[in-house]
Amino acid sequence: MFVQNGQFAWIAALFLGAGTLAADPITLDDFVDADPAQARIGQLLFYDKILSGNRNISCGTCHHHDLAGGDGLSLGIGEGGTGVGPDRVAIDIRKRIPRNAPSLWNIGHNSVDVLFHDGRLEVSDQFGNGFDSPAEEWLPQGLDNIVAAQALFPLTAQFEMAGNPGENDIAGATHDRIDAAWPIVSARVRAIPEYANLFVEAFDTVDEPLDITIVEIGNALGAFVTSEWRSFDSPYDAWLTGTPLAQDAERGRQLFFGEARCASCHSGALFTDQGFHALGLPAFGPGRTRTFDKLPRDVGRMGETDLLSDAYRFRTPSLRNVALTAPYGHNGAMPTLEAMIRHHSNPAASRAAWTPDMASLPPIPAIAAADFAIRQDSREMARQQAVLDINPVALTNAEITDIVSFLRSLTGRSVDERPLGRPATVPSGLPVD
After folding, report:
1. Cα(375)–Cα(297) distance, rounded to whole angstroms?
2. Is residue 368 helix, strand or coil?
3. Using CA atoms, how far apart are residues 327 and 100, in angstroms rounded to an integer?
4. pLDDT digits 0-9 by tens, 132-165
5. What does pTM read for this prediction?
6. Which of 203, 207, 193 shows the shortest CA–CA distance to 223?
7. How far is residue 370's CA from residue 390's CA, in Å, rounded to a whole number?
8. Number of Cα atoms under 13 Å in the Cβ half of residue 297
9. pLDDT digits (tens, 9 = 90+) for 245-303
């Protein structure tokens, strides 16, 4: 079926995979622009703990280069911890981060118009600033893209980077109104001479340090993330231009696009429909509680839309480099790709077989009682089990193995060769994780 040397191979590709059209190859033109000088500033800020309320955590702590842009945990330890990934230790925390750290791969692709597991950030003209976000009309204008906008919200999250009210000025300001902390963050950054000079050189909007605002900081972080985490040189990308996959991966590809129906949600160049679906994953953790709902549960998209029809539905993740970003699911319930595929094949059996030790949760004795408390609420468990968007497909062990092989073929060949990588030091002088 393949034409050798790639000549007209795309024609053959259209007709492979049980009649499902293959996506067009990704190119650099498919990504938002990123200024290299701004990306260099973003790299430093990404790993600089100066952005956090207590100066003890950075963006890179939970999205580390050594862990493929994640943290390797089901639910992360944010503010109040030390170390990185599975070795991170809680020193003084009140709550685990309620959701799994999302992957950063290719979120600068032009097709991405919604971010976060619940989609609480979307490209939109609703508030006159380009986005529908938790900051609503208080999100400043001038952010270059959705990734730049996304970068601002962990800074205001109590259990991620802001800290608890009363601990620092950023946490206190955020408690008053979400945008009140951003001028404080900006003042911290521009007070550091090295940052001030870099911003003056890289941004047309900055003539002197006082011109540095959260907009420039967000755009620098966005430039770094969108350029640093691009990946489209996988064996699958080679397949799109005529290079055959290994036999097991090819069998898995045909199942993925065919009888297993994986592509019904994981479609397009990034293998996501950017929609929201209920997978019926086992529940645990502190939940994403709301002002009027203190149960340790996570209602997913419903938490943003207040529509019952959105209950327990979460955004479809991209599968690019998915083999590098375990554990899986909005709460990291599934430790391996095989476990996640088995769950899709038979959600009821998967839930019944799931045990708490399958979750990657560093022990925190002070809050251990809360980790699995929601599982004792039989009514809540019944509600979650009743909402399921998966149409189970019986798969043999061999077929599951082949699908895993195909998913591994989505791993870029140059994933360990990032343009900038992790800096050895940052301008604040704070330690780099």
Report:
1. 10
2. helix
3. 8
4. 999 999 999 999 999 999 999 999 999 999 999 9
5. 0.94
6. 203
7. 29
8. 23
9. 999 999 999 999 999 999 999 999 999 999 999 999 999 999 999 989 989 999 999 99
